[in-house]
Structure prediction request, 397 residues.
Amino acid sequence: MKIAIAKERRPHERRVAATPDTIKRYLQWGFDVTVESGAGEGASISDVDYSDAGATVVSGRADALTGADIVLKVQRPLTEAEGDDGLSDVPEGAILIALQNPYGDRSGVEAYAKRYITAFSMEMLPRISRAQSMDVLSSQSNLTGYKAVIDGAANYGRGMPMLMTAAGRINPAKVFVMGAGVAGLQAIATARRMGAIVSATDVRMAAKEEVESLGASFVMVEPDEGDTGQTEDGYAKEMSDDYKRRQAELIADHIKDQDIVITTALIPGRPAPVLVNDDMVASMKSGSVIVDIAAEQGGNCTQTKPGEKHTTENGVTILAELNLPSQLAADTSALYSRNLLNFVELIVDKDEKKIVIDWEDEIIVGSCLTRDGKLVHPALVPAEAESDDDTSSESGA
Prediction:
């Protein structure tokens, strides 16, 4: 059995899919591990570190991936249309495990099927307790929320905590976190530790208790009757137009007094919802800062420029960094590689030292995009196609 680790080539990506610690575990399970030279540089892991752990380090991607049964990556391979053809180096029939962005790259997923690649998407894992140790969205979002506060504080021209000096008192900064998912909760906790006065909002009623348990105040309008604000999987959902209007009115009154605003709202498979409009930005004080974590999906602020930092006419700085987890690559790689390790453990028989996939396991089924030359994930396969497959399967039986 062979596991291959390739160097990430997408812009802004410094993370790596395996660390020396996880490689040692793979070796214990009977795998040979090959790492492309330089794969860990962005995460402060040298080729020597990998060699000392027992991996074979080779000079090129093609050499690293040749003969691999499992390919581990952070982001999906680049295609020829994107200026590189990393997918062609993935052996036909191999297992590819990564953050696949299936909603944003449907053609890439279809290319997996054509090459009979069994592709697993780590962001599609079902939200069940047994999958928590594999939950890459949580592990990466945790550090994203932390980094957002650090960046916001670094660009805010004043101190965060209240300070008492002989020359007088400095008031604490006011931080407003929009979205109380994993990233938002970590942002709240970090801003509180730094001494700020923190408030937060979320469309999910269930978030109120979590926000207040961290010492922040909760800002929210009452939802429509019987509406919890979340999907069955626990994600925030798109709300009604009337709710959005009432929420916007409340936020507009609250935001004008804030020093740092951190927006974190994302809806799977959809553009990021607008939370901060032009009028809200115009109402904010000169010197205040907006950190838009959702920049990669268009941003939560109407004046966000993804990948850029800019200052508005009224003196508000808007930060829209891309791939915030990659800016803490050593830590996020350590967490991500453990997520992958726990997932790979599901598909390997450590006693027999062979790959065994249980296609009845809900984690396997919930994260598999392609198998046997076909798209198989329900979110990607039209209902009528699933029906046709079921009919033909029954006829064959």
About this structure: The chain has twelve helices and 19 strands. The CA atoms of residues 134 and 342 lie 6 Å apart. The chain has two domains: 2-134+329-374, 156-322.
